[in-house]
Amino acid sequence: MSATIIDGKAFAARIRGEVAGHVARLKADRGITPGLAVVLVGEDPASQVYVRSKGRQTVEAGMHSVEHKLPAGTAEDALLALIADLNADPDIHGILVQLPLPGHIDEAKVIAAIDPAKDVDGFHISNVGLLATGQKAMVPCTPLGCLMMLRDHLGSLSGLDAVVVGRSNIVGKPMAQLLLGDSCTVTIAHSRTADLAAVVRRADIVVAAVGRPEMVPGDWIKPGATVIDVGINRIEAEGGKTRLVGDVHF
Ligand code: NAP
């Protein structure tokens, strides 16, 4: 059986176009320009790439973008004071604090300080609770994007057997909540799951969010199943180079 590829890049381009349309209407009808503040503490190279990309995409969608780049040694109190300012700033509607934060800063305390209405990452306990109880919430973007692609590809997800591999707060758990919200029968697998191969083999939908290069081989996938690979893993390639692979063997 040959596979159909879900073109994530094309899907993302379409969504960005739709967001730009919403932004233009918000400006024209209500005089509001959505503003997104991204806060980066330290010089983690991957985080710098993500923050740059978030700023660029925000501007491309017609929004107001603000970047706060703080030195790695920034005190927790100073970061909390910045978040209080952003919470109070009427031009800022969304706040993203890039994780991970340096070890001396309590991530949970920082997330808790963000106004839940501006918590566009959906990490604040209020948004986590709203999602878990099936209410309107700010939802973490990675699992939401996966859900949107699954709906786009499959139509109704109702009654499908979904297996999420990984139980992080950022991807696995919210992914499972979203699939449950669409009436899938959901299993969350993790590093202690017994016979992971058998669990994955029965799934109509597999979402892999583990961070282990190509750990899910093709023969774990039921013919006709839909696979979303969230994993981003850099491995060594020929000639001393590196390349990116997912958690599923492509
Ligand atoms: P994480 O916090 O490290 O969580 C990994 C999960 O995988 C944990 O729940 C862990 O189980 C589970 N796991 C580890 N080894 C396993 C094994 N052998 N069998 C089954 N489960 C296993 O990672 P994350 O933040 O969720 O990210 C996962 C991957 O997605 C990473 O590659 C990351 O780079 C990528 N990611 C991509 C995006 C995107 O936008 N595409 C966004 C975020 C993350 P335990 O809980 O039992 O330890």
Description:
This protein has 250 residues and is an alpha/beta fold. It has eight helices and nine strands. It has helices at 8-30, 45-60, 76-88, 107-113, 125-132, 141-154, 172-181, 196-201; strands spanning 35-41, 64-70, 94-97, 161-165, 185-189, 205-208, 226-229, 233-236, 242-245. α6 (141-154) packs parallel to α7 (172-181). The radius of gyration is 19 Å and the shape is globular.
Secondary structure: elements and pairs:
Elements: H1 8-30, E1 35-41, H2 45-60, E2 64-70, H3 76-88, E3 94-97, H4 107-113, H5 125-132, H6 141-154, E4 161-165, H7 172-181, E5 185-189, H8 196-201, E6 205-208, E7 226-229, E8 233-236, E9 242-245
Parallel strand pairs: 1-2, 1-3, 4-5, 4-6, 6-7
Antiparallel strand pairs: 8-9
The structure holds NADP nicotinamide-adenine-dinucleotide phosphate (NAP).
Summarize this, please?
The chain is α/β, with parallel strands linked by helices and 250 residues long.
Features:
binds NADP nicotinamide-adenine-dinucleotide phosphate; 250 residues; three-stranded parallel β-sheet; four-stranded parallel β-sheet
